[in-house]
Structures are given as C-alpha cells and as structure tokens.
Specification:
single chain; about 240 residues; alpha/beta; Rossmann fold; Arc Repressor Mutant, subunit A; 2 domains; 5-stranded parallel β-sheet
Amino acid sequence: MNAASLSFLPHATTSSTVSSATPVVHVVDDDVAVRKSLESLIRCAGWQPQTFASAREFLCRERTLAPSCLVLEVALPDLNGLDLLDRIADHRIGMPTIFITGCGDVPTAVRAMKAGAVEFLMKPLADEVLLAAIHGAIERSRAELDDENEVRVLREYHASLSQREREVMALVVRGLLNKQVGGELGISEITVKAHRGRVMQKMRARSLADLVRIAGRLRHTSGPRSRQLGPQLAFGQVAAVM
C-alpha cells in the first residue's frame, strides 16, 4: 500500500503537511570552517541548515518534524560518526545519513553503508556532488515520513476495533469465508457479517483486497517481536503484541 492508496484517510493531511515542510539538513562536523561553508551552501539551495560541532551536541536536539537528512563527519572528537549512527539507529526514520570524511578507507566506508548510510563522500567536497546526495536523501526522507504516518494511522484504526472485530479481521484476511469464520469463533454467519462490516468501516478498507494489504502493513511494521515470530504469524496474534 502506498500514499496514493491511502489518500482518502482523514489523517493523510498531517503526513502531507510534514513532508511538504522546508527540509532540514543537519551537519555534524568539528571543523568550524566546514560547518560555515556547508551552512551557506545548504541555505542557498533552499533548505534549512542546522549545524553541530559534536555528536553529543547533535544528540541534544529536538526531532525535526520535516523531511531531513544528516551530513556526518566520520572523525569527531567525542563520539565518532559511526558510533553516533549506531546510537540513533532506532530513532532516525526519515533522516538518511550522508557520511563525509577527509581520511576514509574501505573498511570504514563498508561499515558506514552497512549501518545504513546512503552516501560516503570524501573531502574536499564537490558542491554539485554533495547537493545531489542531499537532494536524494531528502526525497527518501519524505517517503519514509509518509510511510511512517500511514502506518501510525492504520494502527489507530486497528486499536479502535473491539476484540471480536480483531478476531474476525484476523480470520477474514486469512481467506476464510463468513461461515468458516463463524465456525471458528462459535458465532452465527449473520453476526460475522455484522462484525466484518464494522471492521471494513473502521479500517477504512474499500475492499477485501484492501483489508488484506492493510493487515500486511501492520504485520510487517509491528516491531522486532512480531518479526521474530515469523511471516506465518496470524494477524490476531500480531494484534496481541502491538
């Protein structure tokens, strides 16, 4: 499911507002000359620069509610760039990282890319190369923020279901017919139809196929515990750990 398929959701305007806000480019580099140069370059490109002299200074910032990216020097005086990336790994959705360095090597570059960096650039930086990297990172940020918001909205919808409605939804998305669902739950087919109708309404699903896609989104974004349980986990079980 993508942004287009969820465009009818009431909360979609929130995502649109965030993703259309002026992008923020965070720069973490202990070299004041580099910070000033990049701040000017970023501002001239139409983005909002935020510069930091150290990793710890960056960690004290508030989360940006706008598309953003991180331009990060590998060698920093307190916590190096690679360690910083590890530190924020669980909190950097919507903030792709571009590593910059004046003394990089292959092992460092490999580690950076494995940690999730989208680019690894050597100093001195060519303006056009850096700007292209930032532009790509910001577009990726927009997509991640839109996706994060869509999943949040679907979780809110799912939380509004009653326990019985969740049980019905779990069986319906597995392909069971109303009569079979009733047999599994010990309720009449008419009652199943009533619950199923409320599920479709609350989940804003236009069709059964849409409901199945929504269930898939929730199943695959419900955290590490559900991933450990494996792809065959029933949606009703996922609901219990969400």
